[in-house]
Amino acid sequence: MRRLSAVLLCATLLSACDDSEGAAYVPPPPFTQTYPDGGVSPDGGSGPESWACQRSAVVRGAPISLWVNLQLAMSRATSPEVRTAAIDQFVADVAAQGGTPLVSDARSGRQRVVFFARGDSARDTSVAGDFNEWSPTATPLAQVRDTDLFVAEVDIPRTGPHPYKLVQGGGFFEDPRAKHVVWDRLNRNAVGQFNSLVYPDAQDATKGRLTAWYGVHATVLGDARDVFVYTPPSYDGPECPTLPVMYVHDGNESITRESFVDAADAHYKARPQDAAVLVFVALPTQDVRLAQYTFAPARAPGWPAPKGDEYLAFLKDDLMPRVEAGFRVKTGPQDTGIFGASLGGLISVYAGFQFPEKFGFVGTQSGTLFWPHDGEVDRDDGNAMVLRAAQEPVVPVRFYVDHGSPATGCTDDGEQGSDDCQSNLQFIAALKSRGYDVAHVHEPSGQHDWSFWKKRLPKLLCVFRNTDAKVCGL
Fold first, then answer.
1. Per the record, which residues fall in region Disordered (predicted)?
2. Average pLDDT, rounded, for the chain
């Protein structure tokens, strides 16, 4: 009872209470939704404030004062409807001010963290993390009165970016309201999972970080998918750089199979001048991959209708404006790239030809470039992207193409271990015949596999930032 009274009194007087000791509470700099990592100059200028480029200022969970304010509102509520409205506002404020978990101010004497879940399905949910030795039962979420809100308040020291997951029925899963994540390092040889983070600002400053957007809606497709935005170490530096941006297909697997994030970190450490923001775009499910990464008229009996055009509409009309509003990224085709592996390479090349005003750089790794132009998949009468490169007007796009081949040399796409080398070489020849700027990496014995794409990724990242491929060793 004494604890509750103290909370309510503190909330009444300050609207925020973090059990601070010593100095008076000083609120953090303002958080802006439209340009959260750029800041707003207090004098009305256009340049970002240096504080807005520091992880300690912008890479954080929502303030615990929101929970204190909710407790106060609940104590005053006179009906279930009023309590529901208060919880609705609380959930919206958490999303707007950093996501879960809610954390105390760094200067507080007691470091409290609040986890929550909402809805009837959240019943019997717990939190497991390194702070409780990943126990699936040690930290249960408790129901708040007669509402559908379930909460756990825990003391967690600021000794690092503590990873955690939610747990229900013995199954571990991501916190859907958390914005700061890392791969959990479990290669499931399929779509992987992420750990959410407490104190994400404490991540290794020499490495990049991931911001998760769960359930991003695609207007034309009518589905939703997760997006993970990688910002390199220099992004959080005092210079407040605005960086080029590249969109990556198979956005979950490319992080959780053979981590492209690790490859990016290593490359940007060696060549910080190549730094870029990478937007990893996942699929709603693997079942839609063939449809969303291909284009008309190519169809075979039993294959889904191609929806590549609808997928690209999502990228350029739904996702790109959100990325450009939420991160310090350059705009315009010369600073915007797109790349993927296998079918992801195919849809990247298609995107470059369809929308050169959006994507000025295209990367394809072992691209499925045998995709035909006439809808008959098994006919050897012309590969669609090879024909476009050879016959259509030249577009202002730079290309990076890599692939493997059998050790004995490339003869046929159907040969064991070919890695689609024949159609990739035909594409390279067509590009060069028209004067395109193209960088080519051919790895003998290279296989159609994530480990090979990760190994070659630094070349792609380098070529994206350098028009002279010689500086990339090509």
1. 28-49
2. 89
